[in-house]
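User: Can you recover a sequence for this backbone? Please restate the input before giving your answer.

Assistant: Of course. Working from this structure:
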């Protein structure tokens, strides 16, 4: 670039009314390949919507153990709290589908 070196900057766009990032939207659509693509390309795994929910909150709330495992293996914080003072781990504790998924998903959300 003219006048100096161009450095790529991470891009973390948020939707205006809810604060959803593309990662939140991929989780909502149960799109594993998009989740993996976004994380591989620098999406912030712990991005919070305006209500405080992270992509992991959404995955656990939607009983998507596979995406919850992907997010956890990418370093998602299971103890971040949303506006209702719930962590993803709190949501997982009452979620039989995620807790019975076994192995990686179960350990990844701290059950």
């Amino acid at each position: 670039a003219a006048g100096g070196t161009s450095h790529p900057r991470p891009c973390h766009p948020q939707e205006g009314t809810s604060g959803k990032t593309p990662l939140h939207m991929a989780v909502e659509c149960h799109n594993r390949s998009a989740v993996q693509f976004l994380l591989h390309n620098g999406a912030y795994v712990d991005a919070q919507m305006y209500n405080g929910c992270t992509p992991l909150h959404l995955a656990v709330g939607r009983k998507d153990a596979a995406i919850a495992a992907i997010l956890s293996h990418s370093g998602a914080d299971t103890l971040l709290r949303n506006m209702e003072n719930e962590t993803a781990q709190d949501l997982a504790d009452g979620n039989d589908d995620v807790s019975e998924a076994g192995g990686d998903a179960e350990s990844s959300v701290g059950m």
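That completes the design. Residues 56 and 101 are 16 Å apart (CA to CA).
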